Amino acid sequence: PFREEGVFSLLCGKCRFVIFHFCKLFSISVHLQTDKTRTCLLEDGTSYRGSVSVSAYGHSCLRWFKFEWTSEAAKGLGPHNYCRNPDQSLTPWCRVKRGTRIVRELCNISKCPVPKPPAPPAVDTELTCGEMPSQRMNKIVGGAMTSIESQPWVAAIFHRRSGFGCGGSLIAPCWVLTAAHCFPDGENTKIRHLSVYLGKSYINDTDADREQKFTVEQMIIHPKYNNSYGSYNNDIALLKIKSQDGKCAVRTPSVRTVCLPPHLTMLPPGVECSIAGFGKETWHFSQYLKQAKVTLLSESDCKRDPTYARDLTSNMFCAASPTWSTDSCQGDSGGPLVCEVSGRMFVFGVVSWGEGCAKQDKPGVYTRVTNYNNWIAMKTGLPAYAAGVMYPTK
Ligand code: 4AZ
User: Fold this and answer.
1) Residue 65 belongs to a domain
2) 366 C-alpha to ligand 1 centroid (Å)
3) How far is CA 370 from CA 130, 204, 263, 316, in A?
4) pLDDT (tens digit per residue) in 92-128
5) Which GO CC terms are listed, alphabetically (predicted)?
6) Domain hosting residue 247, numbered range
7) CB of 237 closer than 6 A to ligand 1?
8) Which of 34, 56, 188, 354 is deepest in the core (most CB within 10 A)?
């Protein structure tokens, strides 16, 4: 805090030595810091009203009243020896004694910190999706526990009555991609009973610093999703999310968007991708987010099992681990299968179905996301996101 001599010095405009001191006593009780005065250096320091009283050479400043007979309170002068800039010099200065001479010397006043404007909340755009997380792999059946920062696009979808239900992936700040079968009541689902969390590593614990909570503003189930034969064809859905203050996902280390690959793009069999979710490990849902590596299977490999041969459509693909030890499972549904392409993560699959979990010759089945780019573009109104513009062209 600093003392503003202004008011009383002004009253004492033509006072001399004694009265100055009298005024000074009074001015002690006046503690004002106006917007225009400060105790650090701003520009040429005209507004400096701090109490540095040595020159840059370390010489003691002499009191102003010895030289300035008229008190110039507006310029911060008065019965003191603080550095001031009453005459638009380079910086605040004062008079000092050098031998028998009295000279002006500039003072070294520390600069005012430049106030930074608050950064606007950062949001991912279609150009910043799928950035490789800072924390890589550090169990889904098999696999390993991970923190949400490794898969920051993973969403957890809760139902008011049944609790945790499904996974999802953040594909744009307001849009979560998930599976249609997550909503058994279909279009009759009461969206006010749904909540979506991003940035969540523990299903039953809250970490307010990392989580973002949303309600569902809109639920769009693929119109051709049809489970009447017990097969999950077109198992894809979109949720438009909104936080309590009406906003969408804010970009943080624990909340990021994943990229969509372009229409009809698919990686060849054998490529290793990863799945993530809070699904069952054995009998119980995992308390923690888990991720696992799985390998893409060819259609013919997937159709070896007669059930798969019957139910697998061109809107699906399969993935499994070579040893059948890791797989997605109940509760992972709706969550992402992501593959790295040129250092970015792309969501190729949505966890959909499978016969059991991690059983030999019973791979996990994933919705083929790249059959739905046009539908996603149309429903979200975000053609650039849906086009997969970050996918390398060669
Ligand atoms: C399910 O019940 C489920 N192993 C999801 C994925 C798989 C099996 C079941 C794949 O939601």
Assistant:
1) no
2) 9
3) 16, 33, 5, 10
4) 999 999 999 999 999 999 999 988 887 756 899 999 9
5) extracellular space
6) 148-387
7) no
8) 354
